[in-house]
Specification:
- The protein is an alpha+beta fold.
- The chain is built from 13 helices and 11 strands.
- It folds into 3 domains: 109 residues, Alpha-Beta Plaits (2-Layer Sandwich), CATH 3.30.70; 95 residues, Chitinase A, domain 3, CATH 3.10.50; 159 residues, Orthogonal Bundle (Trigger factor, domain 2).
- A hairpin with a 3-residue loop joins strand 3 and strand 4.
- Helix 4 packs across helix 7, helix 10 crosses helix 13 and helix 11 packs across helix 12.
Length: 424
């Protein structure tokens, strides 16, 4: 039977669960069968030590913790079922008592705190008006043209913006250093790809010209032996290329491949439309954030630290996945930014707190406004999303967390839409 003890906070509960009799005996038996496989006792083959000999040699206590691990999940399930509590984070668990007869766990279960939303209507919050300027269109047009520029070989000297095809090798104290050599390397002058001063000294060189560049590595350079080191780079220019912008002619628009776009005017209209769509999305997100921020100023809630910590971990995992997509591990990120895991978690704490606060706040408003989503609505939404991501519905639901998560997501979205209506 579960014993529940309320702590000072109403939403923090301690639930004690005792596992004994046959259940505990079976766990001890399983623990022995696994431990005995590696047990070595003189006079017995490995894995063939009798239970009484094993316990005499190693002690009964050697089985207790392994057996406790085997019944922990069962004990937690029992704690939730018997206490009828709904945890909002993974509970802490302490081992209160353990012996050959029983194991006793104490689960610290944190439930949703009380939330008092004092005002969430009539805040008169307006979305930003979306406009697209001529400068924005021209800026984006320059990016489109940049994608379709052609590199052509040029005569004369290297200038800023050119691509210099070079051979190079670096020397420190007359000795070539690792990673300092390249052949037919395409260096865009002005890209700041190399250490300060390198590209500046290549400017003015001609094809076939060789030159020694006297340079100094930065004090914070990543390679210890080269930090602040004076070096010489021997450079030879093999070829010079320059970017040539395409003409806005029939061939260009054919390569562009945008349906119905066959002139500069139509391309600018397409660019304007795309910028406007993106700006509208950004403005909508800012509008929602502003509403949530204003409503949250009128909320009373004591958020458990554990909820924020769990959200920080979720945000950290998401950040790690984003870094992986760019080919950067967290360890490399810490090295580049001269930071630590603790620094990253501290940076994420404010966002994590807001996320938890907004979630609790929206759930309370959802309850107050009796917002619900039917099974039929949720099923249609799942079908639509599965079709969008081109996966079977069952597979999508399994990855998303089931139909209840679809319902929850729809309820949250409905609540946000209602807040927009109530605060115009």
């Amino acid at each position: 039977m579960a014993k529940e003890k309320d702590t000072k906070k109403k939403n923090v509960h301690e639930v004690t669960i005792k596992i004994e009799n046959e259940t505990w005996k079976e766990a001890l038996d399983k623990a022995f069968k696994e431990k005995v496989k590696d047990a070595k006792v003189d006079g017995f083959r490995k894995g063939k030590v009798p239970r009484d000999i094993y316990e005499k040699h190693f002690g009964k206590e050697s089985l207790w913790l392994d057996a406790a691990d085997k019944v922990l999940q069962e004990a937690y399930t029992k704690a939730i079922e018997e206490s009828k509590l709904i945890p909002v984070v993974q509970p802490d668990v302490n081992l209160k008592n353990i012996s050959d007869d029983l194991v006793e766990f104490v689960f610290k279960i944190i439930t949703k705190p009380e939330v008092n939303v004092k005002k969430y209507k009539g805040l008169k919050i307006k979305p930003e008006e979306v406009k697209v300027t001529k400068d924005e269109i021209e800026h984006e047009l320059s990016h489109v043209l940049e994608k379709y520029t052609e590199l052509v070989t040029k005569e004369g000297k290297v200038e800023s913006g050119d691509i210099a095809i070079i051979d190079f090798e670096g020397f420190k104290d007359g000795v070539a250093f690792d990673g300092g050599k390249g052949e037919n390397y395409s260096l865009e002058i002005g890209s700041n790809t190399f250490i300060p001063g390198f590209e500046d000294q290549v400017i003015g060189m001609k094809v076939g010209e060789e030159k020694d560049l006297n340079l100094t590595f930065p004090e914070d350079y990543g390679v210890k032996d080269l930090k602040g080191a004076a070096v010489v780079f021997k450079v030879k220019v093999n070829e010079i290329k320059t970017k040539q912008t395409r003409e806005l002619d029939e061939d260009f628009f054919e390569d562009l491949g945008l349906e119905g776009v066959d002139s500069k005017e139509k391309l600018e209209k397409e660019i304007e439309k795309n910028i406007k769509v993106q700006k509208e999305v950004d403005a909508e997100n800012k509008y929602i954030d502003k509403i949530l921020e204003e409503v949250s100023k009128n909320v009373e809630v004591d958020i458990p630290e554990e909820m924020v910590t769990e959200e920080v971990d979720r945000l950290k995992n998401r950040f790690e996945e984003q870094m992986k997509m760019q080919g950067i591990s967290l360890d490399l990120y810490y090295q580049f930014t001269k930071s630590t895991e603790e620094d990253l978690k501290n940076q994420l704490e404010k966002e994590a707190y807001s996320n938890v606060l907004y979630r609790l706040m929206l759930e309370e408003i959802m309850t107050l406004e009796k917002i619900e989503v039917s099974d039929e609505e949720a099923s249609k939404e799942a079908e639509s999303l599965a079709e969008k991501y081109k996966v079977p519905k069952d597979e999508f639901l399994a990855n998303f967390g089931g139909i209840e998560m679809i319902k929850y997501d729809l309820e949250m979205r409905k609540t946000i839409e209602l807040l927009k209506e109530l605060n115009k």
